[in-house]
Write a structure and sequence with these properties.
alpha+beta; 5 helices; single chain
């Protein structure tokens, strides 16, 4: 029985190897096609950008910029005198156009202010229970925006929580 299966198995392996080699060694499309594909993708990207711009209702000059803060924030949740959990957050800031550089220049002061807000939020139970509830996050975002405004002034228009996770210990 095995003697009859070996040729079939070898044929299937050879067929699979041939198909894989053919796909791997296929020649690249001619340069004209690559240029046409790049132009088509650029045109599609411009169409999508115009559609998004129309949805938001802002012109290119007034479009906000987004600044992702370099490192995550780690906030301990203390219960009964011991660390019960760690909350890890990533933040981005929505700023007025042309204000990306001032955010990075003041980032240490900004991180300090944000950490203080997050520690206060954790100490009042904001990261306990259903910490991702909309009302809890609105309170946190509002507090972070106020703290950011104290450091940078009216440059910050919003604070975005891009990632949030809680790890119980």
């Amino acid at each position: 029985m095995m003697g009859k299966l070996i040729p079939v198995i070898l044929a299937l392996i050879g067929l699979g190897g041939g198909v894989g080699a053919g796909m791997f060694l296929r020649p690249a499309p001619p340069p004209e096609d690559q240029a046409a594909q790049a132009a088509r993708k650029a045109a599609e990207g411009a169409e999508h950008a115009e559609a998004r711009e129309g949805e938001v209702g802002e012109s290119k000059e007034g479009a906000p910029e987004y600044v992702k803060l370099n490192n995550q924030f780690v906030v301990p949740v203390v219960e009964k005198g011991r660390v019960a959990a760690l909350v890890v957050l990533s933040l981005s800031l929505e700023v007025k156009p042309g204000n990306t550089e001032p955010v990075y220049l003041r980032e240490p002061k900004l991180r300090d202010a944000f950490l203080q807000v997050m520690f206060d939020h954790a100490n009042t139970g904001g990261f306990s229970g259903s910490f991702t509830d909309g009302s809890n996050l609105v309170v946190l975002r509002t507090s972070l925006k106020e703290a950011g405004a104290k450091v940078l002034g009216p440059v910050i228009t919003d604070v975005l929580i891009t990632d949030i996770a809680r790890q119980d210990t």
